[in-house]
Write a structure and sequence with these properties.
Blueprint (H helix, E strand, L loop, with lengths): L4 E4 L9 H16 L3 E6 L9 H14 L5 E4 L4 H14 L2 E5 L10 E5 L5 E6 L3 E6 L7 E5 L2 E2 L1 H12 L3 E5 L6 H11 L5 E5 L2 E2 L15 H6 L4 H9 L14 H7 L10 E2 L2 H14 L2 H11 L2 H9 L1 H13 L5 H8 L25 H16 L8 H15 L1 H13 L7 H8 L1 H15 L2
Parallel strand pairs: 1-2, 2-3, 10-11, 12-13
Antiparallel strand pairs: 4-5, 5-8, 6-7, 8-9
Helix pairs in contact: 1-8, 4-5, 7-9, 10-12, 14-15, 14-16, 14-18, 15-16, 15-17, 16-17, 16-18, 17-18
Length: 447
């Protein structure tokens, strides 16, 4: 098998989910690593449940992730090939027309069954080693409802044979399908592909992973502001590792490092916090211009107008926002909660909020802010940056009590219990606005 060909063969009966992404990724990586071909095959033999919208979702999701395919097929376009193979196997005596008792009045009274040789089938799995099945219990299984309506087990074997698939990488829920498919391969004289059955991805409680555990469709992750690099890095390590402690792995590195031998036997456990950790890392590596565009697009209309009117402020707050989010989707919720308003508008608050912890003397806090005002007033506008501001204030704050000096300063600038440190805030707002807001706080304290 010198020409490696892998395939990802989803059914368009639902959207592309994260578990399927891992199957697609491993198949894609193995093909790319071996200068082979990666096939995307839409298995739409279930005519009633297959939908064009699901097919579009699958293709869209793979394209967004960068898992490009070399060839594309739909089973619904291949009916003539299945029919030819059915006729061929009937001629060989491996398939026969079976007269059936219809389950419901009006249903067909015959199907096409595979004549089971009733043998033990042993195949090599790259994860689990040799696996044996006694196929006797399968009986003469149905491969098609009629000459034009093949079932999954038959269609998939014909497709893999015709397309030259050398390696089948799929979830271990498909292990039980393998004996039937091998029997059909042998009847056709088809070569046996190399099988790798991946362990299931489990929920944190080791149950079946579902949407309630945070496992969404790939396109939903995109809408929530996750990056494809983060999803691929996270998914790659759910069932495989490069043999060391490396966690941050680019797609290019994965191609070099990936191996089927290092796929783990045990089920990987879903961890949404770990996915967010990866995403935060990749957001910080994202080009600044693209980060700004993503954040701006997720601002509510009113805040977007303020950002447009104050581009200098908007540019300065990008690093602050990035430092406090794990996904771009969080930006909208934080903005709606007013977390960014104080960058553009003077905050409003009660004077008691300016007091540090158990301190209860407003005039003392006011006097300390007056001292802060005097210290920063001497800083030249061109050097009004966090380091210079901190240097100017730090000695006094240490002497007078850091909390009782820095808390009222920070609250005067933001009006919120949680916000960036006062030096960063002052630098973002600029000297003029900083002085204006501190003066307002002093007036409120010294009433």
């Amino acid at each position: 098998m010198t020409n490696v060909i892998t395939r990802f063969a989803p059914s368009p009966t639902g959207v592309l989910h994260i578990g399927s992404v891992r199957t697609a990724l491993y198949s894609w990586l193995y093909a790319r690593q071996n200068n082979g071909r990666f096939i995307l095959r839409i298995e739409d033999t279930d005519k009633e449940r297959s939908k064009k919208e699901f097919e579009d979702n699958i293709i869209d999701g793979l394209n967004w992730l960068g898992l490009n395919h070399d060839e594309f097929f739909r089973q619904s376009d291949r009916a003539v090939f299945y029919k030819e193979r059915i006729i061929e196997l009937i001629a060989k005596g491996a398939v026969y027309i079976s007269k059936e008792e219809p389950k419901e009045p009006g249903e067909r009274a015959e199907v096409l069954r595979f004549k089971n040789p009733n043998k033990v089938v042993t195949f090599r799995d790259e994860v689990r080693g040799d696996i044996s099945f006694d196929t006797t219990e399968l009986g003469d299984f149905v491969i098609a409802k009629d000459f034009d309506t093949p079932l999954y087990h038959f269609a998939v074997v014909i497709d893999d044979f015709d397309m030259g698939v050398t390696h089948i990488i799929r979830g271990d829920d498909a292990i039980s399908n393998t004996p039937r498919q091998i029997l059909i391969q042998e009847a056709l004289g088809a070569p046996r592909p190399i099988y790798t059955h991946l362990p299931m991805i489990l929920a944190p409680d080791k149950s079946k992973l579902s949407k309630r555990h945070g496992a969404l469709a790939v396109t939903e992750y995109r809408e929530e502001g996750y990056l494809p690099e983060a999803i691929l890095n996270f998914v790659a390590l759910m069932g495989w590792n490069p043999g060391n402690d490396q966690e941050i792995i680019s797609l290019e590195e994965m191609i070099k490092l990936f191996s089927l031998e290092k796929v783990q036997k045990g089920g990987a456990v879903w961890n949404i916090d770990k996915l967010k950790w990866f995403n935060k890392h990749y957001i910080k590596l994202f080009p600044v211009g693209k980060v700004s565009d993503e954040i701006f697009a997720r601002f509510p209309d009113a805040l977007r107008e303020k950002a447009e009117a104050n581009p200098k402020i908007f540019g300065k707050i990008i690093p602050v926002i990035v430092d406090h989010i794990s996904t771009f989707g969080e930006v909208h919720a934080l903005a709606e909660a007013g977390e960014y308003d104080y960058f553009f508008d003077d905050p409003t608050y009660q004077r008691e909020s300016l007091l540090w912890k158990d301190e209860n003397e407003p005039h003392v806090a006011g006097q300390k802010l007056q001292k802060v005002l005097a210290l920063i007033d001497d800083i030249d506008d061109a050097f009004f940056v966090p380091e210079t501001i901190k240097t100017a204030i730090w000695g006094y704050a240490t002497e007078a009590g850091r909390g009782s000096v820095l808390w009222p300063m920070r609250y005067a600038l933001s009006g919120r219990d949680k916000s960036p440190d006062p030096f960063t805030l002052a630098s973002i707002l600029g000297k003029e606005t900083t002085i204006h807001r501190i003066e307002g706080a002093i007036k409120l304290l010294l009433i």
